[in-house]
Structures are given as structure tokens and as C-alpha cells.
Design brief:
Layout: H1 7-14, H2 18-25, H3 33-45, H4 52-59, E1 64-69, H5 75-88, E2 94-99, H6 104-116, E3 121-124, H7 137-141, E4 146-149, E5 160-163, H8 165-178, E6 184-189, H9 194-209, E7 219-222, H10 226-238, E8 245-248, H11 251-263, E9 272-276, E10 290-293, H12 296-311, E11 322-325, E12 328-330
Parallel strand pairs: 1-2, 1-3, 3-4, 4-5, 5-11, 6-7, 6-8, 8-9, 9-10
Antiparallel strand pairs: 10-12
Helix pairs in contact: 1-2, 1-3, 5-12, 8-9, 10-11
């Protein structure tokens, strides 16, 4: 078996010290650009690959960051991950991904697994089941950066990147009102998660400002999925308070709503439908779906910038920043109300 190239081989080939090679590979400022270039070219020529484990043990840094998301099936979270990776690549950081699949138990295991992998920090969007956040405390105790994005918790005093979710709920309801809808229902999760609670509050505020009734019978608490959208829409359309528009907790739920409405010949925009997240499929279903864009790419970029800022400080929690993004309305056919 061919012997693996080491920094000793590079030093011997260039007739320089091992410490000079090590510093050149680490981009040490005191090493001249000429020497750095020669070392890098020789390393490439000799097929040298650094021993990352040894380097990590020496520096205390693995240059790996853990990212925990509810699911990568959602384009929203996939876009955030892509932007995080893009924002960190020039700094030499790589990402280890862990999916909770909306399970608190999985999320706890994810935190434990990532810490055992000696990651330099963790970014997380919490599962729908998460109420007790004590498992995140170990990250803070180890003085490693913890950044929460999208789904956050008030008990954790850490940097966050979120959407103005109250504004998002208000924007969705106001758009439907502006389109001429008056009996607006809302399908949301039964779980007490801040972002969904804030959207519901925004919806109620928009109705109240426009002197429209807030009917508890038109608020369906359940899950967030295509199946839940179908169920919620069916329940609403059979009720005595039958709505003329439905806000769905996310685009997957909205897709289920549209499927059910088409089955009962109430195809949008006859009954208006709007979702959240601007998933990739939303522009291509029939009718295509109006939605609230949560700016996933910007959210990921802000997380990356925040992490780099935190690791540059001896105490990553010296300054606790909270970035709040503004939602945007994406108007499509599902809310393009027909003339009455």
C-alpha cells in the first residue's frame, strides 16, 4: 500500500522546516506568499491531504457546524441549508445535517450526536413537539455558538433569525380582504409554537381592523400536511360558518385544501386559498398557489454571518443579535377572486 504523504515529505521536498510547512498550510500571516505558494503546489503535487482529526485536536476546532431542521423535504428548509453552506464555504466550514422529522426525541438525539462529533456550533429550527428546550443548554454550557432560526423559543437567550410572523399572518389575511373575501378561515397546528401562534394573532388583528368577525369555529387546530389540509377544508366547508377563503399554516397544508376544494367543486379562487413558505411546487399546481414568501435564502445567509461573528469572539454570547425578516406576498391564481 502506498504510504500517505505527510508534511514531513513536503518539508523534505522544499528543504524547509516542518513548522514552516504547517504554518504555510494554515495560512499563517508571517509566512511569505512565495513560500505559501510553493508549499501548496508541492502539497498538491504529492497528493497531500491534511489529517483533519489531528488538526482539530491541536486547534480545538473541527470546522464543522451542525444544522438541525424539521425536514429537508420542505424546499424552505432545503434553501436555508444551501444558503448556510454557501455563506460558510469561504471560511472553510462544512455542514453536518440532522433531521428531527418533527420529533422532540430525534431533536434531543441530534444535539447529542452533533456535540459528540465535536462540531464548532449548532444552528437549529425546532420540531413541532419541542416545549422543553433544556437539551439545547448543553451547547451553551460548552460555550459553542447556538443559533435558532425560523422556529425559536423565548426560554433560550441566544441569537435568532426569524420572520415577522405576526406581519406574515396579517399580510395573508389583508390580501384576502383586499381581494373581496369576507369570511376567512385559518388552518394551523395544534402545537403551541411561537411562529404559528404569531401568524394566528396577525390574522385576527387584520380581521378586527377591517371590522370582520373572528369566529373560533373557523379556526382549525390540527397538523400541517396535505392530509391535514384536506381534512381541515372538508370540516370547514361542512360547517354552518362556511368560509369564502382559507389561510393554511403552510403550503403543503394549502395544497391539501385545494385538492379537497376541487373535489367538491369549490375550486379556488371561488374559495380563496393562501399558504406560507413559497414552496417550489406552489407556482406549478392548478390553480397555482398564493403564498407568503419567508425569504429562506436570506435567512440562511443571516445565520452564516451570525455564526462567523460569534466564533470571532472569545464569548460567542457577548452580543445577542435578533434578525427579523419582513415577509412578502406572492399573488397567484388561488386568491384571484372572480367578479361577483
Amino acid at each position: 500500500m502506498k504510504k500517505k504523504t505527510t508534511i514531513y515529505d513536503i518539508a523534505k521536498a522544499l528543504n524547509i522546516t516542518v513548522s514552516t510547512v504547517s504554518r504555510a498550510l494554515s495560512n499563517f500571516p508571517a509566512i511569505s506568499e512565495t513560500t505559501k505558494k510553493a508549499v501548496l503546489e508541492t502539497a498538491k503535487k504529492l497528493n497531500y491531504s491534511p489529517n483533519r482529526l489531528a488538526s482539530a485536536l491541536k486547534s480545538g476546532k473541527t470546522h464543522i457546524i451542525g444544522v438541525i431542521v424539521p425536514s429537508v423535504q420542505a424546499h424552505f428548509f432545503a434553501s436555508i441549508i444551501h444558503s448556510i453552506e454557501d455563506g460558510l464555504k469561504d471560511s472553510g466550514y462544512r455542514v453536518i445535517l440532522y433531521q428531527s422529522n418533527e420529533s422532540l426525541e430525534n431533536e434531543i438525539n441530534g444535539v447529542r450526536t452533533l456535540l459528540e462529533a465535536q462540531v464548532d456550533g449548532i444552528m437549529a429550527s425546532m420540531s413541532l413537539e419541542t416545549q422543553d428546550v433544556s437539551h439545547f443548554s448543553e451547547i451553551i454550557k460548552q460555550n459553542k455558538p447556538l443559533i435558532l432560526f425560523d422556529r425559536v423559543h423565548p426560554d433560550l437567550n441566544v441569537p435568532t433569525v426569524t420572520l415577522d410572523d405576526f406581519g406574515a399572518g396579517y399580510l395573508a389575511a389583508q390580501h384576502l380582504i383586499d381581494q373581496g373575501y369576507k369570511k376567512i378561515a385559518f388552518i394551523t397546528t395544534v402545537h403551541q409554537i411561537k411562529i404559528f401562534n404569531d401568524r394566528l394573532k396577525g390574522y385576527k388583528a387584520a380581521l378586527e381592523k377591517n371590522n370582520l368577525p373572528v369566529l373560533e369555529e373557523n379556526i382549525i387546530y390540527g397538523g400541517l400536511s396535505i392530509k391535514d389540509g384536506r381534512f381541515g377544508a372538508g370540516k370547514l366547508m361542512r360547517s354552518a360558518y362556511k368560509p369564502d377563503a382559507i389561510i393554511a399554516g403552510d403550503d403543503f397544508t394549502a395544497l391539501g385544501v385545494i385538492k379537497k376544494l376541487k373535489e367538491i367543486d369549490e375550486t379556488p379562487p371561488k374559495i380563496g386559498v393562501i399558504g406560507f413558505a413559497n414552496e417550489a411546487f406552489s407556482a406549478y399546481i392548478t390553480p397555482n398557489l398564493s403564498t407568503i414568501d419567508q425569504h429562506a435564502n436570506q435567512m440562511g445567509s443571516e445565520c452564516a454571518n451570525m455564526f462567523l461573528k460569534m466564533i470571532a469572539q472569545e464569548n460567542p454570547y457577548k452580543n445577542i443579535d435578533h434578525v427579523v425578516l419582513n415577509p412578502s406576498l406572492v399573488e397567484r391564481q388561488s386568491t384571484d377572486k372572480l367578479p361577483s
